[in-house]
Amino acid sequence: MAVSISLPVSGHDWQRSIQALVLLTALGFMASLTPLIAARRLDGLSGTACSLMTLLGLCSSLGARQPQWGLVELSLAVGLCLAALAFSVARVTLSEEGDRALLLFLVLLCAIKTFQFLVVGLDVFMTAPAVLDTDRLIAGFSNKRFYGQFQTFTLPLLTLPLLLSHAQRSTRVLVFSLLALWWLICITGGTRGSWLGMGAAACVLFIAGHSGKRWIAWQLLAVALGITLYWLLFNVLTGYLGIEVTNAASDRLTTSLSGRGPLWQQAWDMIRERPWLGFGPMHFADIHNPIAAHPHQAILQWACEWGIPSTLLVMWLVGRGLWATFRLVRERADSNDPVDLLRVCLFASLIGALTQSMVDGVIVMPYSQLWLSLVVGWLMGIHVWKSEPAKPNALIHWSWMGISTAAVLFLVYVVIRDVPHLEERNKLYQQQYGGHLQPRFWAQGVIAIKPD
Length: 452
Fold this sequence. Notes:
By secondary structure, this protein is mostly helical.
C-alpha cells in the first residue's frame, strides 16, 4: 500500500481556517504598534486608492444578491492587505535577521515537501504497480494546480542562496539540489500556469540587468536537471520496470483552455450587464456553472464582481508598485548586497504569481493568498523610498484599524459558524447540483441557491 504523508491543514477548508488565524495574529501585531510605525508603509496616493477600493467594495457588497457573502470577500481583501502591512513592518523591525529567518523557513518548507515526494515516490517504485498515476506523488493540496501556485511563489525565492557571494560551496550544492528537485515536482505536477509565470518572470528579469540574468542562469540549470530527472524516472525507469505512466507531464503540453472559455464568457457577460459595481464580491459563485466558482482570470474576476472602476484602481496600484520595484532592481542590478538580491527574487516571485493569476485562481486559494501577502509585504519592507512618507494622521490610522478589526473578526465569526456544518453544506450542494466541489471561500464555494 502506498505511503500517504499529508499535513492536517492540507485541505482547502483547513487552509481557510488557518488563514483566518493568521489574519487575526496580524491584526494583533498591528494593533500593538504605534500609529507612526504602522502607517508608514504606504504613501498618500496608495492609501487613497485602497480607501476608494474599500468603499466601492462595500457599495458593491450591499447591492449584491447575497450581501453577507459579498462582505466576506471584502473582509478577506481587507484582511490580506492588513497581513501585507504586518509582514512589511515585521521586515523593517527585524531587518536582515528577518530575511534570514524567511529564507530558512522557505528552505525547510520546500525540503519537507520534497522529502514527502521522494518517500511516496520510493514507495510507489518499490511496489512496482502496473500503472503509475503521477498525481499520487503530489500530496498536500486538494488540487495539484494549487501546489503549482505554491511552487510559482517559491521557485524564484529558492535561487537566493545561489546568488549570494558569501554562501559556502556546500550550501550552494544543497540548495541547488533542492531547487532541481523542486523543479522535478513542478514538472511532475504539470501545472502550465507555473511555466507561464516563471517564463514571464524570466523575460522581465532579462531586461532588469545583471542580477536578473544571474537569476535566469541558475533557474535554467535547475530546470534542465529537473527535466533530466523526470525523464530518467518516468521514462527510463518506468520503461525498465514495465510500468505504464498516466497523467504524465507530456499530457499537459497542450494549448487548450481546459474549460476556461465558458468561465471567461460568463465573466464578460457579467461585466457588460453591471459594469460599475459588478455583481458583488464572490458573486461569480452565485451563478452556478458546472466548471468552477471563479473565472480563473484575476482581472475578469475583479471586474465582474467589484466593477470596472475598482478594477482600474487595482491595476493602477499593482502597476505602480511593480514599476517602482522594477526601477529599483535595475538601478541596483550590479549590487551583491543580500537585500538587493532578495528584492530580485521577490520581484520574480510576484511577477510569476501575477502572470499565473491570468489563467488560474491565485487570488482565490487561501494558501496562495497568504503567500501573495507575504511577498508583497516583504517587498514593501525592503523598498527604498525616494522620500519619507508624510506623518500619518491619527484619525486615518485608527479608522483603518477599526475597519481591519471589523473585517478580521467577521472572518473569524464566519469560520466558527461554518466549519461545524461544512459536511452538511457539501451534501446539500451534491443534492442540488451534483458534480464536483468548486472551491471559493470554502472547498464547496458555490453560493448559488437552487430555486425550488
